[in-house]
Amino acid sequence: MKDDSQLSLSGWNEVAASGVAVRIVDRFGLQVSGPDAERYLNGQVTNDVRRATEERAIYAAITNAKGQMEGDAWIRRGSEGSFLLDAPLSLESILPGRLERYAIADDVSFERVEAPAWHIFGGSAAAEAGVGRFGMPGYDCENQSAGLSEMTALEAERIRVLMGLPRWDADLVSGMLLPDAGIDPIAVSYDKGCYIGQEVISRIRRAGKTNKKLTYLVAKHSVESVVEENLAGEELFSDEGIAVGTITSAAWHPRLDRWAAIAYVKKAAFDRATAGFFLEASPREEHLFFTEDPAPYKAKSADV
Fold first, then answer.
1. Residue (of 31, 45, 285) closest to 183 by Cα position
2. Treating both helix axes as pointing N-terminal to C-terminal, what angle do 153-162 and 9-17 enclose, rounded to 10 degrees?
3. Which residue of 1, 87, 181, 259 has the smallest Cβ count within 10 Å?
4. Chain mean position to CA 302
5. Given pLDDT bands bounded at 50, 70 and 90, which one contains residue 195?
6. DSSP code, position 4
7. Which of 126, 159, 180 is closest to 22 using CA atoms?
8. Burial class of residue 128, CB neighbours in 10 A (0-12, 13-18, 19+)
9. Shortest CA distance to 53 belongs to which of 24, 86, 79, 33?
10. Do 9-206 and 209-300 come out as alike in CATH topology?
C-alpha cells in the first residue's frame, strides 16, 4: 500500500513553487575530444549533438545496428570543441567501449571525468533550464548554493515517475527497440544524417508499427491498499482478463491522490475497446485500474 516513502503534497508543492536541489547519484562522466569529436559522436548517438551547448544538454540513446538500445546519456559541449557525456553508472564498464568501437581513423579521444554533482529543478529553475533530468526544467551545477531545500534521490525518483520520464535500469533496458519506449520524439533526430541503428529506427517510424509501447498511466480513482507498495513489476490486464502489460515504475501522486505509473502495454491492447488496464485478472469495480494519459514531461521538460 502507499507508504511514507511516497512524495508528500508539501514536497510536490515546494518543487512547483520554489524549486529544489538534489545530489546527482549513480552517474559517470565521459569527455569526447579532438578535431573529429562532433562528427564522430553524431554518428554514434540518436540525437543531434550540434544542438548541445555548454548550458543546454541534449538527451540521446546509443543503439546497435538493429536499432536496439545499448544505453542513454545527457550530452553537453565542453571546452575546445569537446563534449561531456554523463550516463548511468551501471553502464560504466560497457558504454565507453561501445562509443570508442568505431573510432578507427578518426582524430578523437575519450577520457573519464566527473559527472555533474547537483541538479536544480522546478520553480524558478525553468528560467535557467538546460537539462530535464527528472522530467521538469532544470539545470546542473557543481555546488548547491541557491539556498533551496534539498530533495533526496528517492523523492526525485518519485518526481521522475510522476512526470512519466523513463529511466535506464527501470523502464529502459538493453536490447529493447527505441521506438517501443516512446522516447524517439525527445531522443532522436530524424534529419541529422546517419548513426548506428538509424536505418531500423527510421523504418519503424515510417511503418508506424511497434509491438508494445511505454505508456504513462494514471489510476482512475484513489485506491491506496494494493498488494505492492510501488507496483513495479505488477502485470496489467484488460477488462477481458488478458495480460497486456507490465508496470515498470509507479508512484503515488500527492496532488491527484492516486497512483501514477509507467508501463509497457501491448500495442494491440489500445486497438480494442477497454475500460482501462486492471491490476487484477478478474477485474471488479473496486479494483485498481489505469487509463492512459499524455506523459507530462513531454510538455514541460527542457530539451529532455
1. 45
2. 80
3. 1
4. 13
5. very high
6. T
7. 159
8. middle
9. 79
10. no
Residue 166: other Cβ atoms inside 10 A: 22
pLDDT tens sequence across 243-298: 999 999 999 999 998 899 999 999 888 877 566 898 887 666 666 788 888 899 98
Q: How does DSSP classify residue 221?
A: S
What is the third-level CATH fold of 209-300? Elongation Factor Tu (Ef-tu); domain 3 (2.40.30)
Q: Does residue 302 surpass a pLDDT of 50?
A: no
E strand residue ranges, the chain: 20-23, 27-33, 58-63, 69-77, 83-88, 109-113, 118-121, 138-141, 212-219, 235-237, 243-253, 258-266, 277-278, 289-292
The CATH T-level fold of domain 9-206 is Gyrase A; domain 2 (3.30.1360)
Residue 297, strand partner residues: none
Sole residue written with cell 500500500:
1
Phi-psi region of 54 (alpha: psi -120 to 50; beta: other; left: phi over 0): alpha
Average pLDDT, the chain: 89
Q: Structural domain boundaries of the chain? A: 9-206, 209-300
Sheet holding 138-141, edge to edge: 20-23, 118-121, 138-141
